[in-house]
Amino acid sequence: MIVLVVNCGSSSVKIDILESETGDRIFRAKAQRIGTQLCQIRIDDWTLPLPGADHEKAIETIFQQTSLEGVTAVGHRVVHGGEKFSAPIRIDETVERSIEELIPLAPLHNPANLAGIRAARKHLPDRPHVAVFDTAFHHTLPRCARTYAIAKDLREKHGIRRYGFHGTSHRWVARRAADFLHEDLRNLRLITCHLGNGCSITAVEHGRSVETSMGMSPLEGLVMGTRCGDIDPGVLLTLQRHAGLTVDELDHLLNKESGLLGLSGISNDMRDIEQRAAEGDESCQLAIRVFCHRLLKYIGAYIAVMEGVDAIIFTAGIGENSASVREQVCQHLGFFGARLHEERNREASVDRLKPVALISTDHSQTRLLVVATDEAHAITRETEEVLK
Ligand code: AMP
């Protein structure tokens, strides 16, 4: 099946056309800085300025650059599926309306996802469109893991609970790991660490998500590129009361100026931070230590939640590429029999054709793996499953 994948962020649009079985990419385009005078489309090495374009204009222009004739279906990444969507679903008017009703839960993401759905349905009305939700995989979170300790009436009125995100990636890498280990996913306890610009970690027990670090929004949990992750809510009260920050200023601070960027003071990119840390920059050294410590703390917690773990998986930009971050975390995991193979770790390299690398020793009781994530390919497979 040839699937066109639409992934709309608040200021970007990514369009991929893939063969669902192999994951071969037929076409790839990206529009950035949507809604500004600097908006431009990039296809391979070619750049087209598109000042002031919105999502619809960007999608329409990208569609003009390639043939859509062979496309069988369209898969849309949708960030928040709320309580309602526990699996991907074929999009119709009712589904569109439901995604719109979920905007209060994901004010930054769902409006962009919806703009992408509307534009693509307008231009390709005769193909089936499927919504694939970041939250769906976490529908299996037990009540004790998804409930915040505040009053029931407030929780129910405002949909306040933990939902979890990055579900498509966690599910994808868990499956790749099970294939690699020649095990049935239903027999495994896995911890999947998605460490990219956004970071989250999930406990996958017998194929089901039973704990995950992102919560009602993608702000909770690990330290991320620009997001703070876990923080005492008292800090927010202090910033409002004593630093005079408004709600919008707090939102911007916690989502865009914190995490690795806030800690290092120079960059949200782990490559820059690792380089400066090696040159002796103390803020960058601390940023890496805080990042790794938070991750280690979650891994320990998830081992307790599942009463053990068979494999720990590192994925996404940092997880796949930073041997140093993996080493700084794994060197503390010997207490339950996980042994990092230093050379395998340094040399690990994964891609679509060789998506899994083993980085633990042959005698390690818990396997340590690097697994390439591929959200576009995962979305094509989920789209295909719905249509079958
Ligand atoms: P993603 O969101 O999965 O594309 O991951 C993006 C992040 O991966 C970047 O912000 C970098 O911090 C990180 N990254 C990519 N390549 C490397 C590398 N070779 N070493 C360390 N971090 C990397």
List keywords for this structure.
single chain, 388 residues, alpha/beta, Nucleotidyltransferase, domain 5, 2 domains, 8-stranded mixed sheet, 6-stranded mixed sheet, binds adenosine monophosphate
Strand content: 15-25%
Q: Compute the separation of the termini in Å.
A: 11 Å
Q: What is the number of E strands? A: 14
Poorly predicted ranges = none
CATH class of the largest domain: Alpha Beta
CATH architect. name of the largest domain: 2-Layer Sandwich
* Estimated radius of gyration: 21 Å
Please give the domain count. Answer: 2
Can you list the ligands bound to this structure? adenosine monophosphate
The sequence of SSEs as H and E is EEEEEHEEHHEHHHEEEHHHHHEHHHEEH
CATH topology of the largest domain: Nucleotidyltransferase, domain 5
Write out the CATH superfamily name of the largest domain.
ATPase, nucleotide binding domain
Mean pLDDT: 96
What percent of the residues sit in helical stretches (DSSP H or I)? 25-40%
Structural class: alpha/beta
Instruction: Specify the overall morphology.
Output: globular
Give the neighbour order of strands across the main sheet. Answer: 5-4-3-2-1-6-8-7
| Main sheet attributes: strand count, strand direction, barrel closure | 8 strands, mixed
Q: Enumerate how many helices there are, as a single number.
A: 15
Task: Describe this structure as you would to a colleague.
- By secondary structure, the chain is an alpha/beta fold.
- It has two domains: 132 residues, ATPase, nucleotide binding domain (Nucleotidyltransferase, domain 5, 2-Layer Sandwich); 192 residues, Nucleotidyltransferase, domain 5 (2-Layer Sandwich).
- 39% of the residues lie in helices and 20% in strands.
- It contains 15 helices and 14 strands.
- The strands form two sheets. It has an eight-stranded mixed beta sheet with strand order 5-4-3-2-1-6-8-7, sandwiched between helices.
- A hairpin with a 2-residue loop joins strand 10 and strand 11.
- The chain binds adenosine monophosphate (AMP).
- The site of adenosine monophosphate has 12 residues, from helix 10 and helix 12.
